[in-house]
Amino acid sequence: xxxxxxxxxxxxxxxxxxxxxxxxxxxxxxxxxxxxxxxxxxxxxxxxxxxxxxxxxxxxxxxxxxxxxxxxxxxxxxxxxxxxxxxxxxxxxxxxxxxxxxxxxxx
Length: 107
What we know:
- The N and C termini lie far apart (about 100 Å).
- The protein has a domain at about 35-95.
- The chain is built from 4 helices and no strands.
- The chain is mainly alpha-helical.
- Helix 1 (about 20-35) packs antiparallel against helix 2 (about 40-60), helix 1 (about 20-35) packs parallel to helix 3 (about 70-90) and helix 2 (about 40-60) packs antiparallel against helix 3 (about 70-90).
């Protein structure tokens, strides 16, 4: 019984895409802030950052310098959604908190 000796295989480099991970995390946090009416500005800021990091991640993945291009694209989509929710939250928020109360309408 002789053991078969094989030459060591070359390890394939693992390219990670930190921009994609950052874009997805910022997009998820931005959407979370966008679902609450009080944090529309934070949702917009996180959404814009998610879109920027996601675009960088997609470009890096297309050039072959990183992986996870799909995650970067999802980060861009989540960022766009966060920006839309943030702007909608800021536009629909009333200027004065008591303007919708019954005493505000009558007085």
